[in-house]
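Much of our argument rests on the idea that a fold can be written as discrete symbols. Part of our work consisted of pairing the sequence of a single chain with a tokenised description of its backbone. No coordinates are needed to read the tokens, only the vocabulary itself. The record that follows shows the chain in one-letter code together with its fold in token form.
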Amino acid sequence: MTTDLSSLCERLAASLQDGAGLVYQPEALTEGLRQALGEISFSMAVDFTITGLDGASATTLPAGFESLLLQGAAALVVLGRSLRHAEQPALAPEGLAPAALAWAETAWL
């Protein structure tokens, strides 16, 4: 399986049930992946990269870490959306389902 920014964003959107990109913007998905990769890199004391993310030309993240990366990124994206809802409710009046927020908080821990 190809592990580059584009394929990971597609998989992340699919895992968030937003394959059409109607809820989560590409920038939010990319930032979620960036932050999750940073946390994995920090915890392992290795600077992992993903092709296409921040100019990286190769992916060094081991294939076995992809699911961890995607779960962390999904949690961060949902948490980021909840922050947006809390700070600017007029921009997203539909709110965020409490179950989604509870999942994100649990998944990130």
About this structure: The chain has a mean pLDDT of 84. The radius of gyration is 14 Å. The CA atoms of residues 15 and 66 lie 13 Å apart. DSSP finds four helices and no strands in the chain.
